């Protein structure tokens, strides 16, 4: 099996995720709600990033990252369930399906998110393929990326920006935390497990920062340019919530230009890293293909 193919890594992750979410003690309705959001067709960019970094170091290392990749997807999925709640973005659709609270009710949706968040760290603690020092490093990094210094901090900034508009730098800071932090963790986790050197870790963090911002700019643009059939969500939702977005701050063309800048910077980092290390970091560039806009096809 060639683990230097992103689709292969995605398929491996899906099989592992399916095997790991068959609980014996969890109330059936709770696991149904958890699996409903876990298995509803996400792109799996974060776990694939993590596994790709390991595959680049050595294909034999990929299996060592599977539980960490699952933990990361659990955190991401919990955040989406809670983001969709009426008290947050109040969304009815996620990836073309009814959001978790629309399907199971608000109470169970909140608890499904709580369970995913908590169970994520159990996956890290129980990983027999990693030594204790590696586990502690991963727990430390994931808690920072997902908590009050990272994703949650960005979510707070996003809510506050609905009432108090921010400038471009302020918006980038919000999304560096809300969106970028988990992407950076994916790359850092692969580096930690794979034993990458300090300069590689730094380059991967910078790639994650540019990719995270590009991903959010693309998301904002798709809310304007995309259709419900393409995005799987109700479009024009950001405007209805008076959110601060890149198109609202920079205009449509300005946001497209900002996207191009971030994608170019991310690509350059991978090119440099591949040259310096002699390893095929360019395979991570395939993830940038997800940031294509409809008008560019």
TrEMBL record:
One Pfam family recorded for the sequence: polyprenyl_synt
Catalytic reaction list: isopentenyl diphosphate + (2E)-geranyl diphosphate = (2E,6E)-farnesyl diphosphate + diphosphate
InterPro entries in alphabetical order: Isoprenoid_synthase_dom_sf, Polyprenyl_synt, Polyprenyl_synt_CS, Prenyl_diphosphate_synthase
Cellular component GO terms, alphabetical: cytoplasm
Alphabetized CDD domains for the sequence: Trans_IPPS_HT
Top-level enzyme category: transferase
Cofactor(s) the protein requires to work: Mg(2+)
Assigned keywords, A-Z: Isoprene biosynthesis, Magnesium, Metal-binding, Transferase
Coiled-coil regions, chain positions: none
Domain of life: Bacteria
GO MF annotations in UniProt: (2E,6E)-farnesyl diphosphate synthase activity; metal ion binding
Biological process per Gene Ontology, one example term: terpenoid biosynthetic process
Enzyme Commission number(s): 2.5.1.10
Classification via NCBIfam families: FPPsyn
PANTHER family: FARNESYL DIPHOSPHATE SYNTHASE
Similarity comment text for this entry: Belongs to the FPP/GGPP synthase family.
Protein name: Farnesyl diphosphate synthase
Naturally occurring in which organism (per UniProt): Abiotrophia defectiva ATCC 49176
Species classification: Bacteria, Bacillati, Bacillota, Bacilli, Lactobacillales
